[in-house]
Amino acid sequence: MTKPFPNISRAIAIAVAVSGMGQTAFAEPQHGIAMYGDPALPPDFVSLPYANPDAPTGGRMVTAEIGTFDSLNPYITKGSVPWQLRFLTGESLMGRTLDEPFSLYGVLAESIETSPERDWVEFTLNPAAAFSDGSPVTTEDVIWSFEILGTEGNGRYRGFWEKVESLEEVRPGTVRFTFNTPDRELALLAGLRPILKKAQWEGLDFAESGVDVIPITSSPMVIDDFEPGRFISLRRNPDYWGKDVPFRRGTFNLDEIRLEFFGDETPAFEAFTAQEVNFTREFNIARWESRYAFPAVEAGDVVKSVLPHGRPTGMTGFVMNSRRDLFADWRVRDAMLHAFNFPVINDTITGRAQPRIASYWGNSPLGMQDGPATGKVAEFLEPFMDELLPGAIEGYALPAGDESQRNRADMRVAIDQFEAAGWTIQDGVMQNADGTPFAFELLLETGASETIGMADMYAETMSSLGIEMTITTVDDAQYKERTDAYDFDMTYYRRGLSLSPGNEQYFYYGLENADTPGGRNLMGVKSPAVDAMIGRLLNSPSQDDFIAAVRALDRVLTSGRYVIPFYSWNVSRIAHAKELHHPEYIPVFGDWPGWQPDVWWFEE
Predict the structure, then answer these.
(1) Which of 18-32, 301-315, 484-498, 535-549 has the lowest mean pLDDT?
(2) How many Cα atoms sit within 13 Å of 562 on the Cβ side?
């Protein structure tokens, strides 16, 4: 069954327009904020347009997760935490709408006020705001949360805190952030950090907590039960304080959201066919067309839905760690890309049904365009001509590959690039002038069977070039420990990107924190051009400048040849129990955190 994506032209228009480009000088507190201009929803909006304010409550959603976990604190670096917990248990001053890439609306804060320059922002708390234990959310909790997250929290929170000059209560119930650097996005980011209960952590080590302490938040969902490595059960809080807040109406309708953990994809899928799990996403179209004909589907008890979206493709593939001498030379990375014969691998895995990722912001108006850089994109890149790699200015496209196993043309280019970088095949072994063999390790998580299958095919190609490629699989905890320390040559990489890129791009690709343990710059890119383009997109005075800055960033990253891209998912394929429902109106971001399970409901 295919669900419609209404008014897709509207969604793309919103993405391109980036919420309008006027500048509003807030003379009084507002109900929301947009990066430029005013948010689309009026002060008296009833609910988000993609939520059903009349949805019934009750029922449960059960998902199958691959891997394990050893922590329930998603706000710190230590431990392996299910990614969903950050979105399901956290609550912030403002909430991000999935239908406007750059707009926020009040949640814990009943109003926001800022200057035209965005050098400060004030939030006034909703007097009813309360933690799940019934205690009120106070300005003291807000100030402490920002301080602890900015100093001891996960790296994703620290970059923002460094740009805060001061944070203080300016009047009862109101806090003011004053910033030390020009950055229009900071006023929005201040509204998106989770607010924690200060009193809970007195005498406890926040940064070292795991499954021993469950953070108290004000979210509609609370962790009710769990067994390390096996399941987590989240229950709807019947006394949730914010059920009448417009941003929350029609959301978190399910009584239980349960995450069941499996060691491999096979038992996870078996649990779904047996209806022990009632929701799953399928990322492989070949499996979607071949495996979903079991009795429950044929009887109508399981519904198959295909949902388009307007999100960028992001980047998924094998990332090369450029901190390692082996992959520091771009010509070696280029050779590795040419040796990856995508058409054959895609045919084997998906039956050639899914398109390849061509760039980081592909499938969106923000993606780099074909051919040479022109206009403002060329203007922004011109100061960095000496450092940019081939393709950034004149245009870059991934190696096309060949439908035959031999892939002769690309293999010839690969050998030439290896030779240019000082590696030649001698007696069947790729080695340098010192006789050191070219050998590397691909680090993967146990249970990632589809990725392992692609790795096996790639290893055969490497062997034909005289390269020893070792595939190592480790459990979640070891994988996180090694990737946090950048202790890998090559590994799996997934970076989901949005239509509103901002300060998080420094965390993904920035120079300053490239070697900070626990960061997300897995490729190790250290490029003044990258940092400059991020700076431009953060302070763009116009729509054209913003789009040009993102397109220029896309060119620098893609031509950097850090990742060997796989195929993209430009639609979402979901199978679920017939009792699970969502509104027909699909936001521009589609199936994304904030939509599932947030606006779903259970109805017989």
Answers:
(1) 18-32
(2) 26
Residues 6 or more apart in contact with residue 155 via CB below 8 angstroms: 77, 507, 513, 516, 518, 519, 520
Helix (H) or strand (E) holding 525: none
In contact, 563 and 490? CB cutoff 8 Å: no
**What whole-number percentage of the chain has pLDDT above 70?**
96
Q: Are 110 and 94 in contact (CB under 8 A)?
A: no
Q: Which residue has the higher pLDDT, 36 or 13?
A: 36
Task: Supply φ then ψ for residue 286, to 5 degrees.
Answer: -65, -40
Half-sphere exposure of 377 (CA within 13 A, CB side): 22
- For the chain, how many residues are written? 604
Please tell me whether residue 439 adopts helix, strand or coil conformation.
strand
DSSP 3-state assignment of 452?
helix
- Other Cβ atoms less than 10 A from the Cβ of 367: the count is 20
Q: Which residues of 570-597 are buried (b: 16+ CB within 10 A; e: fewer)?
A: bbbbbbbbebbbbbebbbbbbbbbbbbb
Contacts within 8 Å (CB) and 24+ apart, 577-583: 577/275, 577/278, 577/279, 577/301, 577/302, 577/303, 578/300, 578/301, 578/302, 578/303, 579/59, 579/278, 579/603, 579/604, 580/59, 580/61, 580/278, 580/279, 580/303, 581/55, 583/50, 583/51, 583/52, 583/250
Strand order in the sheet with 221-227: 221-227, 231-236, 256-262, 60-66, 279-282, 571-577, 302-308
Residue 499, token pair as written in the block = 């239509």
Four-CA torsion 426, 432, 434, 440, nearest 10 degrees: -100
Q: How far is CA 19 from the centre of its chain?
A: 21
Distance CA(367)–CA(590), nearest Å, equals: 18
**CA 595 to CA 580: how far, in whole Å?**
13
List the Cα angle 280/591/266 in 5-degree steps. Answer: 20
Write the CA distances from 479 to 410, 542, 550, integer angstroms: 32, 42, 31
pLDDT digits (tens, 9 = 90+) for 546-587: 999 999 999 999 999 999 999 888 889 999 999 999 999 999
What's the pLDDT tens digit per position in 342-395? 999 988 888 877 889 999 999 899 999 999 999 999 999 999 999 999 999 999
- Percent helix / strand / coil, the chain, rounded to 5: 30, 20, 50
Q: What is the pLDDT of residue 28?
A: 82
User: Could you give the CA distance from residue 435 to residue 466 in angstroms, rounded to a whole number?
Assistant: 13
What's the CA dihedral at 252, 312, 556, 547 to 10 degrees? -90
Task: Write down the pTM of the prediction.
Answer: 0.80
Omega before 565 within 30 of 0, i.e. cis:
no
Angle in degrees, 0-180, between the axes of helices 8-17 and 543-559, rounded to the nearest 10: 90
d(CA 310, CA 15) in angstroms, rounded, equals 8
CB atoms within 10 A of CB 180: 12
| The pair of three-digit structure tokens given for residue 180, joined into one six-digit string | 């030390």
Q: Which helix (H) or strand (E) holds 126?
A: none
